[in-house]
């Protein structure tokens, strides 16, 4: 993927509408037939899965996708992360990246 993406969480979805983003979070629910999942990332993110990704409830993931309307993200890439990932620290990183974006370009 050649397009740059910014790291966000659920609190920043609306201000990044139409942009490609990265989100780290924990899968709260997964509906395979509907190709839909809920990700907890400092709030709830609705994922619209476009390919055959299978998510496991309770696992941590990094999602790359395009923010649609308000609270939904159409996924481009789904990567399972370690169970040891500290999602609270990831949320703090998001806030620092928002305050000082020039450090993370």
Describe the structure.
This protein is mainly beta and 105 residues long. It has a single domain (6-93), classed as OB fold (Dihydrolipoamide Acetyltransferase, E2P) (Beta Barrel). It contains one helix and six strands; from the N terminus they run E-E-E-E-E-E-H. It has one helix at residues 87-99, and strands at 6-8, 20-31, 36-40, 44-48, 60-67, 72-80. It has a five-stranded mixed barrel with strand order 2-3-4-6-5. The longest helix is centred in the C-terminal third of the chain and has 13 residues, at 87-99. The radius of gyration is 13 Å and the shape is globular. It starts with 5 loop residues before the first strand and ends in a 6-residue tail after the last helix. The model has no long low-confidence stretch (mean pLDDT 88). It is found in: Nucleus. GO terms for molecular function: DNA binding. Its main location: nucleus. This is Replication factor A protein 3. Belongs to the replication factor A protein 3 family.
Mean pLDDT: 88
Determine Rg (CA atoms, Å): 13 Å
Percentage of residues in helical conformation? 10-25%
Number of strands: 6
Question: Major sheet: size, sense and barrel closure?
Answer: 5 strands, mixed, barrel
The succession of helices and strands, N to C, reads: EEEEEEH
What is the percentage of strand-forming residues?
A: 35-45%
SS-based structural class?
Answer: mainly beta
Per CATH, what is the topology? Answer: OB fold (Dihydrolipoamide Acetyltransferase, E2P)
